[in-house]
Design goal:
single chain; mainly alpha; 68% helix; 0% strand
Length: 237
């Protein structure tokens, strides 16, 4: 873990996963805006190979992103263990921030397999996806866990030196996502990965100050040489 950028690796994983997900969803992405099931199916049949590739890329990003957040929670706890006192930049101690980061990672880890299964079903049976014949509970469970995870992530960032516009946006977006999910029973997944991408970039760019960086262990000082009494020059001859 870098002393000056302790969350760079976690942020890199989150950023790469979010970009991978976005590239996958963008492949034949216009199909999501088509309302006629027959037209959706014909569009997918014309671009079947590209559609399947996109679903695999989206699934890879979905599976990888929680690993970055789990690493962030681990690094946050490790960095806080090196601090001699409470975080000076926030009014709360290090405990709540680490707990929220861990809860966020756990929610992302629990929800990602549900969306991976959904994406696999879309690739395997395009007709079923085109006519919306699949069960809705896997995606709704995933969306609920993602919403909770983003809210917990925002709280963790706000209670740490990483607080700022990204943390505020993540914390404020969670209630909005929850309201939309309850009202419409649907939510575009890209809103989750837009927040996660912003969080990943924030973690990559964050540089710890001298008071928050993990202290290095100083090398032991050399033992002083014993005092030697002066030698009389006449005794040497």
């Amino acid at each position: 873990m870098s002393q000056l950028k302790p969350y760079r690796r976690a942020g890199a994983v989150i950023t790469a996963a979010s970009v991978c997900w976005g590239l996958g969803i963008a492949m034949v992405g216009n199909v999501h805006a088509i309302h006629d099931p027959a037209v959706r199916l014909s569009t997918l049949e014309r671009h079947r190979g590209l559609w399947i590739l996109g679903q695999f890329l989206a699934a890879a990003g979905t599976a990888a992103a929680p690993l970055g957040f789990a690493r962030f929670a681990q690094q946050l706890g490790r960095a806080q263990q090196h601090q001699s006192g409470p975080v000076k930049d926030s009014g709360a101690g290090p405990g709540p921030a680490q707990k929220l980061a861990t809860a966020s990672a756990a929610a992302f880890l629990a929800g990602s397999p549900m969306f991976v299964v959904t994406l696999a079903g879309r690739a395997a049976d395009i007709e079923r996806f085109a006519y919306r014949r699949g069960p809705a509970w896997p995606f709704l469970s995933y969306a609920g866990l993602q919403t909770f995870g983003i809210g917990a992530l925002g709280g963790a960032l706000l209670l740490s030196p990483l607080k700022g516009p990204t943390a505020t946006g993540a914390a404020a977006s969670a209630p909005l996502f929850a309201a939309m999910l309850l009202r419409y029973k649907d939510l575009p997944p890209f809103v989750f990965y837009a927040v996660e991408l912003a969080a990943g970039i924030r973690l990559m760019r964050y540089a710890a100050g001298p008071e928050t960086a993990s202290p290095r262990i100083a090398a032991p000082a050399a033992a002083p040489e014993p005092h030697q009494p002066p030698v009389n020059p006449r005794l040497r001859s």
